[in-house]
Amino acid sequence: MNDRSNFIAMFVLAAGIVALGGSIVTGEVFNHERPEKMGYPIAGVVEEGAAAAVAEKPIEFYLASADAAKGADVFKKCAACHNAEKGGANALGPNIYGVLGDAIGKGRGFAWSDALGGKGGNWDWTSLGAWLHSPKAFAAGTKMTFAGLSDPQERANVIAYLNSKSDAPKPLPSAPKEDPKAAAGAPVGDAKAAAEAKNGAGAQKAPNTAVLTEQQAAIGGSKNVGGEGAAKLTGPKGVATK
């Protein structure tokens, strides 16, 4: 009886060892790393936030309704590195009082990075908007560590605030007008195509079709041709008139 029990115990133990080994081998063979992006792309479905990025308007559109007071609140994120007061000292970043119209990456007694110093041009609405959106994208290699502001209205508010911190603030731009042809779906600048679309040019004329007389229609099996628009019989030979 003891030999039988020992045999059963050994059999169960061996089966457990085989099952454990099999699971380890299977795990190694079919091991897959976690994908970087979960889920599967579906054709025709736009990822949330992608449409908003595509539809973003020029910064002048947002500046037309910008609020400098709200920009001052957002600028608190920047105050650890920047001073926007007249005569203020440079810190980790330069003093940016009166920055609009100033040369990009030049002067102010600050050690600018080569990336920003080599950009050229002056700070205006567009360049400030691009810089605040993504400093690294605006000037690859910049020492600026701030990631940027994704909300275009927040960027416009900050620009309005910086504009107010100047001896001669500039009037904020009005929203640019949309091209009516672009809004209607016609390519911008394609005046000929727009005119043809408006006047119906290019439409194909339907080919002339003979009008059957009642007698001819009856012979052909279509007896329902009649009414004011149908041709009338004038004689036994089926000569038609209107």
Index terms:
single chain; 242 residues; mainly alpha; Cytochrome Bc1 Complex, Chain D, domain 2; two-stranded antiparallel ribbon; 11 helices; 39% helix; disordered C terminus
How does this model look, in words?
The chain is an all-alpha fold. The chain has a domain at 56-164: Cytochrome c-like domain (Cytochrome Bc1 Complex, Chain D, domain 2). It is built from 11 helices and 2 strands; from the N terminus they run H-H-H-H-H-H-H-H-H-H-H-E-E. The protein has helices at residues 2-29, 50-54, 59-63, 68-75, 114-117, 125-133, 135-138, 152-164, 180-183, 191-199, 214-219, and strands at residues 232-233, 240-241. Strand 1 and strand 2 (240-241) form a beta hairpin. Helix 6 crosses helix 8 (152-164). The longest helix is centred in the N-terminal third of the chain and has 28 residues, at 2-29. The chain starts with a helix and ends with a strand.
How would you characterize the largest beta sheet? 2 strands, antiparallel
Mean pLDDT rating: 73
Q: Regarding quaternary structure, how should these chains be classified?
A: single chain
Strand order of the largest sheet: 1-2
H/I helix tally: 11
For this structure, the CATH topology of the domain at 56-164 is Cytochrome Bc1 Complex, Chain D, domain 2
SSE order, one letter for each helix or strand: HHHHHHHHHHHEE
Q: Into which percent range does the helicity of residues fall? A: 25-40%
Number of strands: 2
What is the overall silhouette?
Answer: elongated
In CATH, the homologous superfamily of the domain at 56-164 goes by the name Cytochrome c-like domain
**Structural class from helices and strands?**
mainly alpha
What share of residues are in beta strands?
Answer: under 5%
CATH class of the domain at 56-164: Mainly Alpha
Can you tell me the residue ranges where pLDDT is under 50 for at least 5 consecutive residues?
A: 181-191, 221-225, 237-242
Q: How far is the first residue's CA from the last residue's CA?
A: 117 Å
Rg over CA atoms, rounded to whole Å, is 39 Å
Second rung of CATH, namely the architecture of the domain at 56-164: Orthogonal Bundle
